[in-house]
Write the structure tokens for this entry.
Amino acid sequence: MADFTQQPSGSRIAVIGGDGIGPEVVEAGVRVLEAATEGVGASPLSFTRFPWGCEYYLEHGRMMPEDALETLAGFDAIYLGSVGWPTVPDHVSLWGLLIPIRRGFDQYVNLRPARLLRGVESPLAKPGSLDVTVVRENTEGEYSDSGGRLFRGTPYEIAVQDSVFTRRGVERILRYAYEEAKGRRGLLTGATKSNGISITMPFFDEIFREIGEEYPDVEASLMHADALAARLVLDPERFDVVVGSNLLGDILSEVTAAVSGAIGIAPSANLNPEGQYPSLFEPIHGSAPDIAGEGVANPAGAIWAGALMLEHFGRPEFGERVLSALEATLAAGTKTRDLGGSASTGDVTEAVIERLRSH
């Protein structure tokens, strides 16, 4: 894990704007990060941009160069905008860029915090009622590339895709979740579907209980994912940390993002907790090609993801400053249209920077 105050050259961040609104929001985040770290030694953060994504694919036949992981390995973190474009199949774009980075750098924790920020109206939650972190397993589970199709184009066509759950993979994500809960309110909910998935989910449940014996101070319980999704909507304040497999964690974090008021607010951290490889930070929204280039995209998710990056660098006070400035900006009414406002991407960015510089 990098500590930019201790490095003469600062922390090196690889920036991949990606597709659609990705370059717009990630550049907004870069400007906010630079403002947040002004006066912290010489060049505390340095950014190197890479033009990888769907446009690169349409020109070169691949989402990023063959040696991309070797290049990225020399950085302290990766800052990603978004991936996806209508003319490139989703499985091509995702499996050509984001998933190779996650797996190549063993970013096995996908951390997705959700809070109802001041100035944001939720269709479901009351102010102060939502503060949930979803911990999602990020490198195996249901998102495997194991399987295949037979008898294509015939009435007998078969498609098989395997879920891969390893003891090592399940243990380490659950232990991370228990530690996260221990540092928060001490409540952990495990998402399962063992009433319908009869092998991998009971395996997950067994390990959840085993590791729970090491954490007597954490109140832990398992809940079927469909019921959990409903309870997150109806009663979000009863939850603290939620942990799930790759698929279930993905779905549930979209639920908590929606409850927080808008997908455009939600951040994500793809972590290699041991620091052997760089971690990746991104908003969870898509590339939104329908509004790309219009200057109306919500930069909040990318800015919050930048705050998570600062926390990862060992400076949580810097991350909290960024989040506080973002929240104050939204509370003052400077909001993009997805939040009911009329501000542009640039308006929100400038307002956040101004608050950082004046407080």
Q: What stands out?
A: The first helix runs from residue 22 to 36.
